[in-house]
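Exam revision sheet. Question 4 asks you to relate a sequence to its structure. Input first:
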Amino acid sequence: MTTATERTGRGEASRPLRSWVRSAPGTHIWLLIIAFTSVVIAFSTEGLERFLLHRTSSNIHELAAHPLQSLVTSSFWIENPSSFLLYAVLFEVFHAPVERWLGTPRWLFTVATAHICATLISQKVVLMSIENHEVPRRMAHVVDIGVSYGLAAAVGILTYRIPRPWRRLYLAGALAFFGLPLATVGSYTDLGHAIALAIGLACWPLTRVGDDGPRRTPGP
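Answer key, structure tokens:
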């Protein structure tokens, strides 16, 4: 039989976790939805999995047919459910600190803007490549889902939260991580990541104004 003391101890032990989750609600709601969609993919047949991944993609075909829907739904799916735990860690390391720092509205504006712009620009480049016969037409139907563009934006804007002298080292690492693949492999996804990182860095003005007035955040 559980005593009142044991229940109190459990309640006190769970308070830090509840406080952690409530301090970044958007991050954890997003993560919960991704957990659900990952389970759906994991238990789907091969045919259903292929249908879901293509139907929720923000590729050229889906953007032309369902622009708003594809932009929204593509941000709630990951292609490989086994990578969910990695994304959960990345969300806690990057998204959650940014949301707590800036507040949910500014965090959401940053990651949503990066996701939308990086998707549209990279897919426009794909379309131009198809029209110039540089890539096959099947690229219009390629699976293009995931949360990495939003993550890249969070990585970018978090630069301004890192204290000096570590800020430059952090920024150099972020530029190398996203820039080297673009310079070497140069895939359309690499282009999208670089764009999203740049948008996160460009959102620096959002770090200067808080709900209760100007923040004391050093400049870039």
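Marking note for examiners. The first strand starts at residue 209 and ends at 210.
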